[in-house]
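User: Could you walk me through two proteins back to back? I'd like the raw sequence and the structure tokens for each, with a short line separating them so I can tell where one ends and the next begins.

Assistant: Of course. Protein one, sequence then structure:
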Amino acid sequence: MKSTVLLTFAATAAALALTACSDDRTATAETSVAEAEVTTDMPDAAVTDAQLEAAANQAVATASQPQQGSMTPMGETPPSASEQ
């Protein structure tokens, strides 16, 4: 589960990062099973605070979902409809 959080965070951060500016802005989000932090150094005109928050919320929502074949308190997650 932690690797999923880190992978999601890294992908989101990489998509938002631009190394030309030095003013970093960060948005964080968390659930009971995951947390995400998204940082960008892009100006507010390129990535608004709302977009930054949305990226953090999307990352934590994705990371909070059980992955196919993972164990949950209810047992193994069932296959998705497309895999049946």
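----
Protein two, same layout:
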Amino acid sequence: MKLILTVGAVLLIATATQVEGLYRALAELSAFLFVAALVIHYRKEKRQKVRIEPEEL
């Protein structure tokens, strides 16, 4: 999933640099949403890996 979002964001950024007007705005918005999804996915993974269990006395 991370690979798909990363490749998609890079392709959208490349598209945004080559077009004008509404298409550029849509490409930038989509790239921003892809990056936001990557950040949320990364935070969820990081939160799930940290498990603190109480020590037995």
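The longest helix spans residues 22-49.

Let me know if you want the two compared in more detail.
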